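Consider the record:
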Amino acid sequence: MDNQPNESATSPQETPQQPPPAPSAGSTNSLAIVGLVIAIIGLVLSWVTFAGLALAVVGLVLSIMGSKKAKELGGAGKGAAIGGIVVAIFGIVLGGAFTACQLVCATATQRYSDQIEQIGKEWQQDMESIEEKAREYQRQLEKEGR
């Protein structure tokens, strides 16, 4: 018989760390799932001015909230929350780029449209001037009897 203490027994001062509780079968992280779905929709609609960008931002916020809730639920929905954050960031980048391009194009189109309208007015004035000179020349030819 050994009088040595049992090494497998823990002393009252040493408490083994308990792992976080496993998610129960009925616990779902709705925020993470909704955040992921909205982020995907935002990414798909990123080419629509402001709509995709706004949806991606909402998806990002909900995914971040879902990530915090995942910690409370012992990890339930953590993957969906992280996926929602990643997809939302891509949606924000693409949506922002598309929106910026569309705004630049719209501004340029308006500016060039105004220039084309001005050129058209000048062309109309030139044509009227040419027509007037042609009428004067016609009257002059009639006076000379030609």
